[in-house]
Amino acid sequence: MAQALLFLIDALASFFTLLLLARFFMQLNRVSFANQLGTFVVQLTNWAVKPLRRVIPGIMGWDLATLLPAWWLQCLLLLVVLSLRGIAPEFGQTGEIALLVLWRGATATLRLAVYLFIGALLVQAVLSWVNPHSPLAAPVYQFNRPILRPIQRFLPPIANIDLSPLVAILLLQVVLILL
Q1: Dihedral angle over CA of 31, 36, 41, 45, nearest 10
Q2: What whole-number distance in Å separates Cα of residue 146 and Cα of residue 28?
Q3: How many Cβ atoms sit within 10 Å of the Cβ of residue 124?
Q4: Rounded to 5 degrees, what are φ and ψ at 161?
Q5: Cα 136 from Cα 124, distance rounded (Å)
Q6: Does 92 or 52 have the greater pLDDT score?
Q7: Distances (CA, A) of 129 to 36, 88, 168
Q8: In whole angstroms, what is the distance from residue 124 CA to residue 140 CA?
Q9: Where are the domains of the chain?
Q10: Rounded CA gap, 38 and 26, in Å?
Q11: How many angstroms separate the CA atoms of 19 and 40, rounded?
């Protein structure tokens, strides 16, 4: 029973974290929210982001009111996992466990961000083959542009086939291994 509960909590927390990260990167990459994807992300995250914007300011174009809740959610998920597994801190270990939770929450958030970009790159590749004029094609391209541009400088299209998404996915897999 605990496994099923843990699975549901993990799925919900990861889904909402991915939505917050998508909103963060869409704002950072200046992706238009005037499309189905943008509207979906904004409507599902507004309840958490709008109140936090009054308290947490943005810094250098980074919307921390969107990024910090994603991190906090992963930290909270880790605390729930530890408590469901019956791992309780002994006397004097509270600070160590707090640091561990904060660090693991940060790495979990980074991992989800990498998975988000891998998924967006796969969606872009499929859309380019199936329906390049889809309403989602432009925002997905804008989302992936900061990752693909540096690769495209070194790897031009070969016979009109852009291999930069494949290289980006391979590099992101390396980042996942390092995390």
Answers
A1: 120
A2: 10
A3: 22
A4: -115, 120
A5: 9
A6: 52
A7: 20, 51, 18
A8: 6
A9: 2-178
A10: 8
A11: 9
pTM, 2 dp: 0.87
> At 7, which amino acid appears?
F
Structure tokens at 107: 């790495």
- Taking Cα atoms as reference points, which of 125, 65, 75 lies closest to residue 98? 75
Determine the average pLDDT of the residues in 99-126.
Answer: 92
Phi and psi at 88, nearest 5°, equal -115, 140
Helices 64-84 and 94-130, packing angle to 10 deg = 120
Question: 20 φ, ψ to 5°?
Answer: -65, -40
Q: What is the pLDDT of residues 53-109, one digit of tens each?
A: 888 888 887 888 899 999 999 999 998 888 877 766 665 577 777 888 899 999 999
